[in-house]
Amino acid sequence: MDHLASHQPTTPLSAVVGTPRSTLTDAVQVARQLRDTHNHLGAAWQQTIDAIGQHGLAALSAKLLGSLDYTNAVGHLSPQLAHALYGNHLEVSISRLESFYRNPYEYFLKYGLGLAPRPEFELTPADTGTLFHAVLDELNRQAADVGGIDNLTDEQLDTMVRQLVADHSGQPGFEVLTSSQRMLFIRDLLTRLLTQSARAVRHEQQRSGFKVHDTELTFGFPGKPHDLPAIQLPLPDHQSVLVRGRIDRLDTMMSAPQPGFVIIDYKSSKHSFSAQDAYYGLGMQMLTYIDAVLRGYEPHLAPAAGVFMHLQNPRLKFTPERQPDLAAAFKLDGLLVNGTGITNLDTAVTPDQPGTSDIFPLNFTKAGKLGARVKAVSEQQLADLLWHNEQLIIAAAAAILAGHLELAPARTDQQATVITSSDYSAIMQFDSTLRDNRYRQLTPMSLDEVLAKLAQERAAQQEG
User: Fold this and answer.
1) Which helix (H) or strand (E) holds 440?
2) What are the two backbone dihedrals, phi and then psi, of residue 71, each rounded to the nearest 5 degrees?
3) Residue 296: its pLDDT value, please?
4) Beta carbons of 105 and 407 less than 8 angstroms apart
5) CA separation (Å) from 130 to 101, 127, 165?
6) Edge-to-edge, what's the strand order for the sheet holding 333-337?
7) In whole angstroms, what separates CA 87 from the centre of its chain?
8) What is the per-residue pLDDT for 437?
9) Which helix (H) or strand (E) holds 74?
10) What is the pTM for the complete model shown?
11) Closest by alpha carbon to 430, among 411, 447, 407, 413?
12) Which residues, 6+ apart, have CB-to-CB distance to 215 below 8 Å?
């Protein structure tokens, strides 16, 4: 007889009693069901459990019944202890605050306690990202000596990329790239990837009115060349949060009636601007970069776009009827600002030359209007997004310094990737069936819904 499937809390004890071990199993299940419905264990079951303990199962009985009260609660830090861990003034990167919104407890483990996976002699995604950024940074600097990357031939570009990868392979931290024949092969694959990506950058620079002005531009790191001021915001109790970071690339256009800028963020996977993630604090990076330039760059520039570039060596499908389109594989994606600068993003696609850009997520209709699917915001809507982004920074920093460390991973669907992809899942022991382990379930929102909600929040804030 399958006791676990057949009995209910109201089933008489005589109908399920068996060996001490099997009866203990039934007792634990009945106790759990009664606990979940806020009822008490009957006298007969309690006497049975006591009797089981006299048959050599006292320790097992106590352990299993004790699990009914287990909640996996992580507790709370006192403000004094939080200040001892983080300081009285918080200095963070925006990616750290994003991790707080993904899961406050993981933030505590990683940045409060300083826990980290044991380093291994292998090439990690972080290593390849560092290599990509370093090579593209140096490539643009060297190209500036000949008037920009758009003036380089294929042969010059390929030679420069190959040499830069070889040079960086000999630097500390990249020794793994020359540690075996297999790793030399992987280095060759990375070189091809960077070569294709560099050609895509050249194509974009040949078509765009915005030109590379700065690479690896820092904010909040005094002493660095061309460093911008940190984003510093006040907190309660005379505290403050200082956000600093590094912008992969800043393109500018100074000749227009209103000088402007475009931010390009390199990614090793396909990426887009998510208004939903920006609203919930899960994707604050691009807005923070735009804010840093608006706050600290001189002369003042108007934002035209914040876009992501997928660094890749795409596999293109070839057919006799259609040539493979390399430019389309590298098409930038992100957020555009519907201002004067938007017509200069791609000089081949303008209100006077309608069509769809193969560089930016942009198209103009025959009437000279922006396409309906273009992800563009007005200057006021961008101001609302930046205001909300700053409020998220303040809220996260205040919560961290107050000692909040809830085990509350965020999700907008039924996937548990915040937990399953974490390096700290073995420590967190998250179990959504436990009373104190709950997801922070987020409601999906479109860009228009986010903008409408922010407009209401700004209006309420200004009235208050």
Assistant:
1) strand 440-441
2) -120, -10
3) 94
4) yes
5) 25, 5, 12
6) 211-219, 245-253, 260-267, 302-310, 333-337, 376-377
7) 25
8) 82
9) none
10) 0.87
11) 407
12) 136, 137, 140, 141, 248, 249, 250
